[in-house]
Specification:
It is a single chain. With 341 residues, the protein is α+β, with helices and mostly antiparallel strands. Among the domains are: 54-63 and 190-267, Efflux pump adaptor protein, beta barrel domain (Elongation Factor Tu (Ef-tu), domain 3, Beta Barrel), CATH 2.40.30.170; 67-187, RNA polymerase II/Efflux pump adaptor protein, barrel-sandwich hybrid domain (OB fold (Dihydrolipoamide Acetyltransferase, E2P), Beta Barrel), CATH 2.40.50.100. The protein is built from 4 helices and 24 strands. It has helices at 2-25, 29-36, 105-127, 133-157, and strands at residues 38-44, 48-59, 61-62, 65-69, 74-75, 78-79, 86-87, 92-95, 158-160, 165-170, 177-178, 183-188, 192-199, 212-217, 220-229, 240-247, 258-275, 280-282, 285-292, 295-300, 302-306, 310-315, 322-326, 337-339. Strands 2, 3, 13, 14, 15, 16, 17, 21 and 22 form a 9-stranded antiparallel sheet that branches. A hairpin with a 2-residue loop joins strand 18 (280-282) and strand 19. The protein is elongated, with a radius of gyration of 38 Å.
Amino acid sequence: MKRYLVILTVLILILTFACSKKKEEGKSMEQIYSEEGIPIRQTVVEPSTFRQNLLYNATLNGMEETTVQAMVSDVITRINAKVGDRVVKDQIIVCFPQNTPSAQYEQALTAFNSIKTTYERMQRLFAQGAISQQDLDNVETQYKVSKANLEVSDKMINVRAPISGIITAMNVNPSERAYPGKDLFTVASTNGYKAVVMVPDTEITKFRKGAKATATWLDTTISGRVSEISLAMDSSTKAFRVEVAFPGMNKKINYGVTAEISIEILTKPNVIVVERHQIQSNNGTKYVWLNQDGKAVKREITTGLDNTLAYEVISGLNPGDILITEGLNLLTEGAKLRVIE
């Protein structure tokens, strides 16, 4: 008999638990929010600095960048570097034949060797007192002229890097014929990046030299400043040229990429700033939600400056107010709140 009583008691407990669980599962979200509170995240309002930026797209080049052009018309015999190689100033990068007609290198070399021999002989004779200073000076002048001619001819067939840096572009190949004025290669210094943005006349008055700027490419951002502002409008683009310098080298950003350039045009310290998505509006009236003693309270605000991402709040909020930042769409006046950390 006792055995049956135990089994009956267990069955009653199971049924009671199942019914209570079913009743619990049957609650609506409104009932759960009413009992436990609407889940929200919040922050304490504090004064900060409002920043207004303008965005542009521009190519990131080397802070100092030079493209070298051919001075002769002939076939390239050798290329001593490739894109990405580090080079030093005056390093030979592209070579043309020594017998290139327009360079006249072989003639210049023969003339130089001849006058060099004569000059060295005249120096010995002068030291022995066999010739006058004037005779030596005349030969020395010929020697210097011949040496300068040889150096010019040499630079025409042995094209050198004008600065130290990285080869960012190689526009020719060995055995390819080049012509005067053809771009051969580009060298960029490794001391930073430079971006040029074209600013319309409606915005140029907002710019100032030294203003903070950032450049973002993929997930990497670098910081810099406005380094130069043109005083005259470019007649072809109808815009003003503004240069932005970003010092330092970042291995994640290659030269030549197109980055988003953000330039700071205004800062206003010690104001209350609220992100755009934390502000709601109704019939032109803006408001935010506050947490007051665990209850949701709607607060009307007046905004001032905006930068598309955030607003300056002129009135309606005070330092120390607890601003609700997430869960806004579920709120009603006086609703119970549950803060999620």
